[in-house]
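Please go through the sequence line and token line underneath and see whether the fold suits the sequence. See right below:
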Amino acid sequence: MICGGGIDPMIEIMAMAGQTLEAAGAGIMMRQSLLDIGTYLTSCGEQLGMLSDSILILADTTSTTNNNGAISSQRMAYASEKMIEAGTELKLVGGNGTKTKPKGKGWLKG
């Protein structure tokens, strides 16, 4: 997936992530279906996951005494996970999936 090419391979990944995130925002503004918006968010999350992997590889190859690259990779992986989770939730709600909202005051309980 990513070879020792520095940050060049990461540029395409970041561009795709930006495009899909912009598409999600445009979809919200144009009142597109939740299924479409969820698909955009899921795709962006997948791109962020690939970026996280790339950051980790870059951090390993240019390793110094600090581990900022590994921490950045972990944070990006978490953002990816949450973006995919949000997209999946939207796709379930928009696609009339099995996800149901709690009834009554059940949403108050943590």
